[in-house]
Design goal:
Elements (H helix, E strand, L loop, with lengths): L1 H15 L19 E2 L1 E7 L14 E7 L5 E9 L2 E11 L5 E5 L3 E9 L4 E10 L2 E10 L6 H13 L7 E3 L9
Antiparallel strand pairs: 1-3, 2-9, 2-10, 3-4, 4-5, 5-6, 6-7, 7-8, 8-9
The structure holds 2-acetamido-2-deoxy-beta-D-glucopyranose (3 copies).
């Protein structure tokens, strides 16, 4: 895992050199700045069952709050029997900057991969349930619509995790609980 993160960090550093829209941060996060409202723009997974309609990990996170004990709170809605139900989960801090863990449908590691705090944030989640490992990546925007460039950035990061365009779903205007 450490090696993967190191290699990924290196690849992202190289990619960052060509990405000058905003100053994107890939480590040593100021997590307090991640707090606030976000809109789900895109999702990707190596098992589409999880993020397609009725998928366990198709979570429309709408608000993120960095808590004063350094844990990270996510507010989202899920559909239960056709009704929108509000859910709050708190992910526990780990010793790594931007990395959190939570038990939800198995064991999960949540990693903030990249953000500029003001426009976009990309998260990677790894779920391990009964020995099966599933990855989900998500792109959030501070606004409902964000520039194509962020989508391209997301696609590049998905590629680093081994996911291609067939693994990516556009989630804009798919969040029926907020429409
Ligand atoms: C994807 O996840 C579903 C639900 O857990 C599982 O039944 C299926 O076997 C998985 N598919 C692959 C290719 O791992
Ligand atoms: C941390 O947040 C909790 C809940 O919002 C609050 O009750 C508590 O006073 C806060 N602690 C500090 C040290 O700010
Ligand atoms: C876990 O995996 C084992 C072996 O593949 C299987 O027999 C068992 O039913 C699974 N348990 C659950 C809760 O999915």
């Amino acid at each position: 895992m450490v090696l993967v993160v190191l290699v990924l960090g290196l690849a992202l550093d190289l990619a960052n050199a060509q990405f000058n829209l905003h100053i994107a941060v890939g480590k040593n996060y100021n997590m307090a700045r991640i707090s606030g409202v976000w809109h789900l723009v895109s999702m990707a997974s190596d098992n589409m069952t999880y993020i397609e309609e009725k998928g366990d990990l198709r979570l429309f996170i709408r608000n993120i709050q960095f808590l004063n004990n350094s844990n990270l709170q996510f507010d989202f809605h899920i559909m239960i029997h056709g009704e929108c139900v509000a859910v709050t989960v708190v992910c526990e801090k780990t010793k790594n900057s931007g990395e959190f863990s939570i038990a939800y449908e198995g064991e999960n590691k949540v990693l903030l991969v990249e953000t500029d705090y003001t426009m976009y944030a990309i998260f990677h989640m790894q779920n391990i349930k009964n020995g099966t490992r599933t990855q989900v990546l998500a792109l959030y925007g501070r606004f409902m619509q964000i520039d194509e460039t962020y989508q391209e950035r997301f696609e590049n990061i998905c590629k680093l995790y081994g996911l291609g365009s067939q693994n990516i779903i556009d989630m804009t205007n798919k969040d029926f609980c907020y429409l």
